[in-house]
Amino acid sequence: MTDPTETSERSFESNPTVCPFCGVGCGVEYAGWGSATGVEGPVNGRGEICPKGAAAFDVVDHEDRLTEPLVRHDGRFVTAPWEEALDRVADGVGRVVDEHGPDAVQFFASSNCTNEENYVLQKLARILGTNNVDNCARLCHASTVAAMSDRLGAGAMTNTLDDLREADCLFVNGANPAEQHPVAFRSYILPAVRDGATLVHVDPRANDTTEAADVHLPLRPGTDIEVANAIAAVLVEEDLVDEAFLAERTTGFDRLREHLADVDVAANAEAAGVDPETVREAARAYGEADRAAVITGMGTSQHRCGTDNVHALLNLALLTGNVGRPGTGVNPLRGQNNVQGASDVGGLPGVLPGYESVADADARERVAAEWGVEPPAEPGLTEVEATHRFGDEVRAAVVFGENPAVTEPNASAVASAFDELDFCVVIDLFETRTAAHADVVLPGSAWAEKAGTVTNTDRRVMRMRPNADLPGNARRDFEILSALGRRLTDRPEGFEYEGPEAAFDEVTRVAPIYGGMSYEGIGDGYQRWPFSADDGAGTDVLHAEEFLTGERTAPLAVVDPVPPADALDAGELTLTTGRVLQQFNSGALSRRSDRLMAMRGEDALQIHPDDAADRGIGDGDPVTVSNERGSVEVTAEVTPAVREGVTFCTFHYAEPLANALTGDALDPEAGIPEFKHSAVAVEPAAGGDAADAD
Ligand SMILES: Nc1nc2c(c(=O)[nH]1)N[C@H]1C(S)=C(S)[C@@H](COP(=O)(O)OP(=O)(O)OC[C@H]3O[C@@H](n4cnc5c(=O)[nH]c(N)nc54)[C@H](O)[C@@H]3O)O[C@H]1N2
Ligand SMILES: Nc1nc2c(c(=O)[nH]1)N[C@H]1C(S)=C(S)[C@@H](COP(=O)(O)OP(=O)(O)OC[C@H]3O[C@@H](n4cnc5c(=O)[nH]c(N)nc54)[C@H](O)[C@@H]3O)O[C@H]1N2
Ligand code: SF4
Ligand SMILES: [Mo]
């Protein structure tokens, strides 16, 4: 029989590549008949995948794919030939640079796209003369990266998925890997639990991860520091600290001990809304374990005190000597399939490829030796800072594979801000809510149409290989970005790559942590950073003898609780937001999958039965959730899984737009938004069903 997806216009073939969704990085390939299937990869050694991986091909041949460049003409989009569209971009960005300078342009890099593509994009920004380049790691683990880089010298998993299997205690703080990183959960975390490891889950909701937990701390959103400090106090009080490690590998213990002596465990537990005995139980499970690993996610990072939250967790690991050995460490599970790599290769405003500060003259010189131009020394704007300045000092945006009009906080305001720009180009697969505000939309390539590399959550660089040709006149992202580099900068020769491999070779020369890697060396497997060409391997467990700061010791930190930005008025509930298994981020990909939509198709608001009863809300009722920033209508899911006083909403769609409710407060160090705490009023909707259009 012939495969009905093989049309005269498109051809598909099976080639091992990497799943386009989460940062676990499972091997997948085209399986025929319009589907993807798991293939044995470095992470999923048995070819196991989750429902998203299985649905990955649905977007590739979706009828909504952009297949022609679009340019705005009298307020409406019309299709245009590539030359005309690229000229419009060169004119639009060029005019802003001429009139306002290069710092009036903001570049959005893409965690959904390859290292090579992101490297070319940040090179383009920097050769143009601005460090205004950022990626949605800003909305995600920016705070984790800030705290971990500061204390340990690297903002990435200290350990590997493999060695987590050796842990005796898994302390999962503000993450729900059972739903968000399913293969990491099933193939690495659950086996450890089955072997006897104690799982502690710190999360205001009971979810699929909690089902495997021995200890659950359902804290109030925004009280992670209270909980972590109480645990630290118990560790000291009950003598569960590692004296030898403290003496040899840390500084500042006396100061921290003094601070913790003033921490009242019962009072902190009360502030967090948890049982003090359960806090002690969690502390003992962590402190008594031979190997204890912290796993951390968005519940920790997405607060205006996100960096401090992570500092408080780092204290636990350092107090107990749980760093530098297998089965230990502090392990952020990264978001998209290449959020780690997009940052590694320089898609951040303050650092060059390989995380060297833009302020470091030697690092700039090393880059200049390769590029022929020195990048600017002043850090650029983060993407949230930039959208707050649209129409003022920022006048143009180049948005590559991101959907900020849906995913940034206070998103209605962000969407309007896009209209204040003089010029905006979006490179995407679909006509997203953000694209609706652009002057030019360029049709890029989906995961199955590209070659390159991505870096997964445990620092493994793996190769992507094409499984499909392009729909219509869509182009490979790598070629689009290289073409923009040739048109927008005065160094066109810097963007004449023979292909992604040539760009990767350049990355290995510019970014020391990738030094010595090659496509050939990666092959069907991986190379892990920090890589050493001498032994052909990367470092699995970081900080074993010394920290990546170059120091033998890391400092302990005194961390005080920080109240959330939104204070609750009488009758209001705390809104926290997050994800479900079957949907992915802004929904541009997952929503176009019939398979995923059939499993779970709409954003819902979890609300406790008592809060629902107080408001006359029944399960399945449409409810209005509102605050001073906006109002959305969603369906209520009445459930005791969420604690009283707290509601949880997913943010996967442009309509209803959950991010209309989230606020502008940012973490002062990392600039991460407070997605996990807003004050809202919840009431039955005034008649009518919840809206559900794209
Ligand atoms: N299915 C699916 N998988 C995904 C994604 C997706 O959209 N869908 N997105 C990918 C991306 S980009 C990312 S970053 C990861 C994120 O993966 P996770 O970090 O697991 O994602 P979230 O659901 O945002 O948040 C995790 C948990 O934090 C809890 N939480 C809320 N507020 C607080 C708080 O104040 N303190 C604590 N301790 N916990 C709190 C929530 O109840 C939630 O269960 O997932 C990746 N994988
Ligand atoms: N309320 C709330 N908001 C949040 C969060 C939360 O927990 N709560 N989490 C935040 C987090 S952790 C993140 S990471 C962000 C995610 O924010 P975004 O990065 O903006 O969201 P995505 O949906 O991952 O992807 C954006 C776009 O990339 C496009 N795309 C995918 N693959 C490709 C490709 O290969 N080429 C091209 N050219 N385009 C492609 C998709 O079509 C989509 O439009 O959301 C943040 N927003
Ligand atoms: S666990 Fe993540 S990488 Fe693996 S198949 Fe699921 S979404 Fe894809
Ligand atoms: Mo993320």
Overview of the structural elements:
The structure is a single chain. The chain is of the alpha/beta class. It has four domains: about 5-60, N-terminal domain of TfIIb; about 70-140 and about 335-530, Rossmann fold, CATH 3.40.50; about 140-330, Dimethylsulfoxide Reductase, domain 2, CATH 3.40.228.10; about 575-685, Barwin-like endoglucanases (Beta Barrel). It contains 25 helices and 30 strands. The strands form eight sheets. It has a seven-stranded mixed sheet. Helix 3 links the parallel strand 6 (about 105-110) and strand 7. The model is unreliable at about 690-694 (pLDDT under 50). The structure holds ligand MGD (2 copies), iron/sulfur cluster and molybdenum atom. One ligand MGD binds near residues 298, 302 and 447. Its EC number is 1.17.1.9. InterPro entries: Asp_de-COase-like_dom_sf, Formate_Dh-H_N, Formate_DH_asu, MoPterin_dinucl-bd_dom, Mopterin_OxRdtase, Mopterin_OxRdtase_4Fe-4S_dom, Mopterin_OxRdtase_prok_CS, Prok_molybdopt-oxidoreductase. It comes from Halorubrum yunnanense. Keywords: 4Fe-4S, Iron, Iron-sulfur, Metal-binding, Oxidoreductase. GO terms for molecular function: 4 iron, 4 sulfur cluster binding; formate dehydrogenase (NAD+) activity; metal ion binding.
Q: How widely separated are the two ends? A: 36 Å
Shape call: globular
The count of DSSP E runs of length 2 or more, i.e. the number of strands, is 30
**Major sheet size, sense and barrel closure:** 7 strands, mixed
Q: In order across it, which strands form the biggest sheet? A: 5-4-18-17-16-6-7
- Compute the number of helices: 25
CATH architecture of the largest domain: 3-Layer(aba) Sandwich
The total domain count is 4
Supply the helix-strand structural class: alpha/beta
What is the CATH T-level topology of the largest domain? Rossmann fold
Listed once per kind, the bound small molecules are: ligand MGD, iron/sulfur cluster, molybdenum atom
The mean pLDDT is 96
